[in-house]
Structure to design on (336 residues):
């Protein structure tokens, strides 16, 4: 994921383009249904469903069951604010790096903090 | 000699009850083909397969021709495949409960129990947006996406379809047979016509159309 170097200073994101579009829609319209997202973004229902399941699993989105005159519907809302999501992404990257390359990361930060002091 | 000729010759040359398995097999086959009742068809399919499976060791014991290795290889295959296929639904259930958020759905359980004839059947909702429904043993799983998509009547049609799978699952290993003896059987068509009878054809068709529309691109 990190390898792709989609990291830019303002647009830090580990989300796929569709995940991003869905997230920004949900940030503006909490409590959206799959069909609302599908219609507004002009993306097929099944793609939205698959993507929303992934976002739920990774803790970006929460699902809630609602009853609207005898019909059941599921609405999706953001779990994290935009800022928190950004923070989570950075932390996820760092966690992954720490798991895989602990020595390199530790010595890197060590060097960086040494640079700062001098 | 081809494999089949050899096996055929061996069965015919065998003594004792060697004519019994083919007889039961043909009897069951005729039940599958002629029975009107869906569950009788399933029963016929079950005994057809059971006879084939059980007569394999017997065939092995009476066989004298040089194609014995075919039967031996098949028996080895059965030895590995049967435990796997028997365990598969339990393992899949474990997997589902471990990796998905699942809750009981009691609202429709009464209906399910009525149409499946099994008063221990349970219904579960999997928190997943893709519409899906399936049966493991005597329990029916539907996803949140399906629940949201269907009207009550359409949901009943889906449940009636799954209820047929519960009925069919009362025959041990019934699903596994398709992979053990390679005799095809149209469970889905029977389940659909059972659902049609119980919940009405229009409801079933509407449910089906909604699902295929959901999965179609555009
Ligand atoms: Zn089915």
């Amino acid at each position: 994921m990190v390898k792709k170097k989609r990291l830019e200073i303002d647009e830090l994101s580990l989300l796929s383009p569709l995940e991003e579009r869905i997230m920004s829609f949900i940030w503006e319209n909490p409590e959206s249904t799959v069909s609302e997202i599908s219609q507004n973004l002009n993306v097929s229902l099944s793609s939205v469903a698959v993507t929303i399941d992934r976002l739920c699993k990774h803790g970006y989105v929460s699902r809630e069951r609602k009853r609207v005159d005898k019909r059941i519907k599921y609405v999706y809302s953001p779990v994290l604010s935009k800022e928190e999501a950004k923070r989570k992404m950075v932390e996820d990257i760092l966690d992954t790096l720490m798991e895989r390359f602990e020595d390199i990361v530790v010595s890197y930060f060590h060097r960086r903090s040494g640079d700062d002091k001098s | 000699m081809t494999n089949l000729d050899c096996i055929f010759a061996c069965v015919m040359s065998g003594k004792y009850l060697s004519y019994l398995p083919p007889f039961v097999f043909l009897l069951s086959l005729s039940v599958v083909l002629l029975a009107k009742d869906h569950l009788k068809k399933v029963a016929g399919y079950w005994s057809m397969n059971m006879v084939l499976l059980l007569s394999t060791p017997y065939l092995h014991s009476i066989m004298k021709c040089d194609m014995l290795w075919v039967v031996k290889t098949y028996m080895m295959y059965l030895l590995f495949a049967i435990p796997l296929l028997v365990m598969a639904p339990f393992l899949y259930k474990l997997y589902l409960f471990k990796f998905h958020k699942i809750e009981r759905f009691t609202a429709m359980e009464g209906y399910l129990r009525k149409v499946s004839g099994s008063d221990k059947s349970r219904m579960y909702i999997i928190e997943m947006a893709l519409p899906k429904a399936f049966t493991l043993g005597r329990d029916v799983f539907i996803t949140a996406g399906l629940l949201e998509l269907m009207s009550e009547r359409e949901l009943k049609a889906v449940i009636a379809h799954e209820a047929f799978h519960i009925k069919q699952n009362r025959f041990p290993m019934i699903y596994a047979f398709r992979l053990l003896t390679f005799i095809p059987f149209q469970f889905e068509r029977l389940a659909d016509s059972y659902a049609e009878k119980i919940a009405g054809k229009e409801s079933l068709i509407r449910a089906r159309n909604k699902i295929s529309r959901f999965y179609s691109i555009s």
Notes: The mean pLDDT of chain B is 91.
